[in-house]
Amino acid sequence: MDVAGVVSAVSDTEAGVPDESTVQDDITTQAKEAQQHPAFYSDATAYWSSVPATVNGMLGGFAHISAPDVSGSERFLQSIFKMQGAPGHARAVDCGAGIGRVTKLLLQKHFGKVDLVEQSQSFLDRAKESLQNSNKVGSYLCLGLQHFSPEPNTYDVVWTQWVLGHLTDTDLEQFFRRMASGLKPDGVIVVKENVTSSGMVELDEKDSSVTRPESLLLKIIDDAQLKVLRNTKQTKFPEGLYDVKMLCLKPK
Question: I need a surface site. Which of 4, 68, 110, 152 has the fewest CB within 10 A?
Answer without folding.
Answer: 152
